[in-house]
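Researcher: Checking consistency across runs. Here is Protein sidekick-2 again:
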Amino acid sequence: LGYLLSDVPDPLDRPLVANFTSRSVCLSWAASRNSHNNPVSHYVIETRIGERGAWNATEEIVTANNETTYNIKNLHPFTVYSFRVSAVNAMGRSKPSRESYYTVTLREVPTGKPIITSAHNTSATSIYLAWKAPSSDTIHGEFLGYRIGYKPRDKPYLAEKEVYIRNQAVDNHTIRNLQAYTQYLVSLQVFNPDGHGPATTVSVMTDDGERGYPERLGIGVVMIEPVRGPGASSTWAESWLEVEGSIWREGFLAPCQNDVETVY
């Protein structure tokens, strides 16, 4: 009298990445060498992000059948991944395979915008710009630095002048050699080897360099901007100088207002 012993499948060999894109990986593996008298019904795929990430940090993928390839989607660009696979039969789930070799998904152009924290004139011919970098998970590649573009607002036919800052640690810059009493559109983008991300743009006006202002404790900008969004209406602000907590504007005092408005 013979007996058939049943058990969970033997562990699989190391799975292999057949191909990949910026947001997907095609994973393949060989079937279990021994399913112990119970056919494999499906597989469970575990995903690890980074070289030291936890295996339980992402939801397991349960395949619909016993095919030995699977296209893993909804991944992040320029991210390190590894995978391991378990086989499942009527008796249960095998031990996981050895993890796949590390795979870095492809780059994409950045999707994050820098946040401009300050933008104002410092003289009749210069503008100061300061910012915060976008979140690192929106860079989608090697963070190479920033691009600043600028041109007079009333001359849209002119090509932007450019400044490239090839140091991601830099968070401010002064644009010089500008025209006096001129409104400029200034844009800021991050870039990686695949291209430039979306721009954050502000409108800033240089000083006229002629009027005898009181002693300057702070400098603002000129803006005439439509503000888009629910419940928003057009707004404007004039060039101002802060003097002991108030605003000097064309010979009268007015409450302080923000000196930066984003152009969408």
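Researcher: Does this match what you'd expect to see?
Model: One thing to look at in this run: DSSP finds no helices and 23 strands in the chain.
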